[in-house]
Design a protein that fits this description.
Layout lengths: L13 H26 L8 H8 L1
């Protein structure tokens, strides 16, 4: 849509719309995770064994 004055409409089923919303949410979560991974220091990381111990 390069012409800003042009109006368009899209019709989706409720299921397709929900799938788009779910994908958008997944992408937002992935972005937050990537941002956090980029700033974490190795000393803050836990092994899977340490995590299991903490969750017991």
């Amino acid at each position: 849509m390069s012409d800003q004055s042009k109006q368009e409409a899209v019709t989706l089923s409720a299921e397709a719309y929900q799938a788009l919303l779910d994908e958008l949410e997944d992408l937002r979560i992935e972005r937050v995770a990537c941002d956090r991974i980029a700033t974490v220091h190795a000393s803050e990381l836990l092994s899977i064994e340490e995590m299991r111990t903490r969750l017991r």
